From TrEMBL:
<protein>
    <recommendedName>
        <fullName>Histidine kinase/HSP90-like ATPase domain-containing protein</fullName>
    </recommendedName>
</protein>
<dbReference type="Pfam" id="PF13581">
    <property type="entry name" value="HATPase_c_2"/>
</dbReference>
<dbReference type="InterPro" id="IPR036890">
    <property type="entry name" value="HATPase_C_sf"/>
</dbReference>
<keyword id="KW-0808">Transferase</keyword>
<dbReference type="InterPro" id="IPR003594">
    <property type="entry name" value="HATPase_dom"/>
</dbReference>
<dbReference type="InterPro" id="IPR050267">
    <property type="entry name" value="Anti-sigma-factor_SerPK"/>
</dbReference>
<keyword id="KW-0418">Kinase</keyword>
<keyword id="KW-0723">Serine/threonine-protein kinase</keyword>
<feature type="domain" description="Histidine kinase/HSP90-like ATPase">
    <location>
        <begin position="9"/>
        <end position="135"/>
    </location>
</feature>
Amino acid sequence: MRVFNLSFAATPIAVRDALRAAVARFIRLMTEEEAGTLELILAEILNNIVEHGYGDSGKGTISLSIARDGKGLTCSVSDDGAALPPACLDLEDRDPERPDPTSLPEGGFGWFLIRDLATDLGYHREQGRNLLAFRMPLDPIEIRRAG
C-alpha cells in the first residue's frame, strides 16, 4: 500500500504545490485520466477550503492524506477553517443529469463534480476541525500492469 501525507498552508500556491506532489506520488499507479480526475477532485476541495474556509487569509493549515489499496484511493482532508455548509454534501436531491452551470449557486458546480467523481463522500466536524473523506475507485493494479 502506498501512502501520502502532507500538511500545508491554506494558500493558493501551497494548494498548487500539494496537488503536484499528490499526483506525482501515485502517477505510476494510475492512468492519465485517473490522475486528472484525482487532481480535479482535490483542486475543487482544497481551493474551496482556502477560499471559503479561511477567506483567503492564508492563516491556517490543511492536511491531506491519501492511501492506495487494491481498489483505489482513500483520501481525507482536514482543516480548522469555517464549517462546510450542509448543502454542499446534500445527496438527497442529487440529479443524475449534469446541471446547467448557470442554474447553480456559487460553488455549486464544483461540488456537483466532487459528488459525481468521488464515492463514499463523507464530512464530519468535531472540536473546530473539518474532516472530509472520499474514495476514488481505480482499476486493480494487477490488471493495469498486465494490460
